[in-house]
Amino acid sequence: MAQVRVGLVGCGFSASLHIEGYKKLAPERCQVVAVCGVPKSEAEAFAAEHGIPAAFGSMEEMLATAEVEAVDLAVPNFLHAPFIIQAAKAGKHIFCEKPLTGYFGEQGTPKDELIGNTVPKQKMLEETSRQVDAVMAVLEESGVKFGYAENWVYAPAFVKLWRLAKTAGGTILRIEAEESHSGSHAEYAKQWRLSGGGSLMVKGSHPLGAALQLKWWEGEEKFGRPIRAASVLCEVGNLTWIDAFKREQTHYVRTGWKDVEDWGIIVVKFEDGSVAEVKAGDTTLGGVHNYLEAYLSNARLRANINPNDSCVAYAPAADIFEPEYISEKIETKGGWSQPSPDEDWHQGYPQEVADFVSAIIEDRQPVSGAALAREVALVLYAAYVSAEEGRRVELGPILGG
Amino acid sequence: MSEVRIGLVGYGNAASFHVPALRQLGRERCEIVAVCGRSRDRAAAFAGEHGIPQAFGDMEEMFSSVEVDAVDLAVPNHVHAEYAIRAAEAGKHIICEKHLTGYFGEPDAPEEEMIGKTVPKSKMLARVVEQCDLIGEAIGKAGVKFGYAENWVYAPAFVKLRRLADTAGGTIMRMQAEESHSGSPSVYAKQWRTSGGGSLVLKGSHPLGAVLQLKQWEGERKRGKPIRPSSIMCEVGNLTWIESFRQEEKHFLKTDWKDVEDWGIMVVKFEDGSVAEIIAGDTTLGGVHNYLEAYLSNARLRANINPNDSCVAYALSPEIFGDEYITEKIETKGGWTLPSPEEAWNQGQPQEMADFVAAIAEDREPISGFLLARDVTLVLYAAYVSAEEGRRVDLGPILG
Fold first, then answer.
1. Domains of chain A (ranges plus CATH)?
2. Which of A47, A51, A57, A283 is the most exposed place for a label (fewest CB within 10 A)?
């Protein structure tokens, strides 16, 4: 029998990413023994496709019937917090997709309300803060492991960057990081009610998580305690709402953003005086653009998560490489391109799953855990307050000591 | 006789850069007929060294003794405004190094006062607005040409980027641009009294000028009038003041910034809703880092002004390349490097001089002119207000 039996909650895009990670692990270490989803028929189809023994129509049913040590929450963002609380109370370890939680409207809010336009960001921050507190309290009480699926923290280029930074030992003065591409395909990403925010939430959470983690580690390494974020200044925009853009006949970037930004920048100042520039956009052509650059006092480091030039290709016409995969969101296979040899691996997907399973077996917290998840959620919503109110927001009172 | 006779004002570093750039244009196009400066002796020494016929201790004396069509102001920033106004009043065309002007303290402020700490940025901005208005009026009244030496606008990679953007025709939605390196060596850069600001003024003015120019062109091409910046949010910092940095035994970065920032970021929003992210720092290792990236709706373009990989080198140890120049501010010649084949050309320095002289000879406005000079100056000081007060600043009332 496997040391860790996992119940997968959800059967969409994230679920298929995670299942590939679990499959790479030795079966005696870990096995996905059940999957649940709504409607049950979809869970059954997913189970059949991936050879999972049991399928259920709800998490309650799965937890009551199947023997699992851990649940993998691959569900829409607005369900994260209630599912975490439920699973932790049942004593299950939790692996959760980002973000930890967010603001998705009130219980009675109509489905079509554009809450990104109507609800003040300060109120969103307060609600999110309450949710985060509730989640943290339950996790503490239950003593379960919590894995926050921030794959950037596990991406090989980022791991190497941190090893070099640690060896160099210089002060991390400045961090620059970005995740952008030409726009999410999922319709849920376009409305605040379902996504909890725009580019910054859906994409920016990755580079933000990695930047916060770097300074956290630097502090622990040098002073035995993390270096925390102290203030945030943010600007957001809707570049696909520019008049001249709207009038163009062909659109190569996604459109139809309802009440969420399609570009944003967060400038974080840390308590030691260092800074981070975190960018996210749904308006960038040329394929996914994921990188983090760290400017140390005695070194400069760059992690090109995607693209990187480990493989370089050129084709005089776009159909020459059909149907071979090139890289995420690249618009054409013609001209010069940087095909990704193994995109999941470069982005740290199998590695994050492996760490979560190891953490349970070795009875330790995963590298990316609840503390980072909490920090990212709160800094993001503080950033939205900054952008809406056009002012710098101090993080001390929000993040606490 | 040359088409354009130039009187050089100043005999420092900038002046030495400008002389070969002007000489490249050929004697029938332009000639440096005289040099002047506060010290007649130093002006004479500079003239002797560079083969300039005459030297003067005063600009007006130069005007009354020699026939000059234009002045090249290669003097410290804090006297740009004064010289520009005097030259315009004498009816001379003007080539002006950046910056147009800035805030350098009240006339009676003590030399050692840390005005970067003591004077509110909103007061600085108000003074700079007044100065810009005075220069604008003087130039307008005299009808002289004003060439603003923003070399980025002339850098070949940037010019190519603009041509591609023009051809693509898509909306310029977002721009990202930076000038950074490991720190200015000159002492004057470290105190507001002599520099008029920190990294943003000394370095950020280049990428800022380039992005403002791009949106200006885009608007002129598409709707017959420039697309103007509408708001700014800015953050500045002193990364070399971080406690753990100070405690390090060896510093590879310049230190001792007195009352100016050594890092800054400006986020500009334009009236059409597009954005620009401009970064400047004196805390970046690895040589000068000058680039501009433009994200269009149907194209993506990047100008790697410096470094770029037109030449790539590797050496097992730094001494292997001996005295051969690699690139500005690179800390070691060891390992992989990107040597600059011809740095001044890559940075657009001879090209800007050629355009200024051509503009005067052909009676047209230079590509980089007074509007850009004024916009850059005012946006920079509005950015300082934003950083100091921790709020977004609307540019409409400031730029008019």
1. 4-149 (3.40.50.720), 152-349+369-399 (3.30.360.10)
2. A51
